[in-house]
Amino acid sequence: MKRVISIVLVALLTLPAFTQELSKKEQKQLQKELKKEQKAEELAQKSEVVDAMVEYKRFVLEANQLKDKRGNSLNVSSNINFIAADSLTGVIQVGSNTYIGRNGVGGVTVEGSIADYKYTKHEKSGTYSITYYLRTPLGSYDVRISAYPDGRANADVRSTTWGDKLSYSGFLVPPGISRVFKGTAL
After folding, report:
1. Which has more confidence, 11 or 168?
2. What is the domain extent for residue 115?
3. Which whole number is the average pLDDT over 35-44?
């Protein structure tokens, strides 16, 4: 009887050693699954924020790259290069850290009213296509934005008065947490 009990005890003591190895593998797999779930949840939250910003016309596209009509691109500071929409009004700004321009941030700032704001959501990809006109004292600007569920965005701004085009690439952020500095509008 003592022998049977000792065999059972030895078996019970060695069994956790085997289950720990399996549980380590399972733990790694569970951690991977948890990370996937967290990323999916974060993307869903970001997507909801982007949905609200687009629907209520309240967003700031903080650009970290600009591209001219010839395709020349330039990495820029996102706190002075932006496109902002605040329901009825909007701002387009280009700035430079190297010199001070007429707007105080080395570039041009135009501010005006938003007209013909339209957006469509592509259900399969979750991306938005946004179009509107910004009417300013210096002329009218055609703004076309592509916004992605993760917050990335690209915009083409065309001056209907001057015929120039400038493309912005960056991220859409809510105006309340945006860190942009608006210069003096012309």
Report:
1. 168
2. 1-186
3. 89
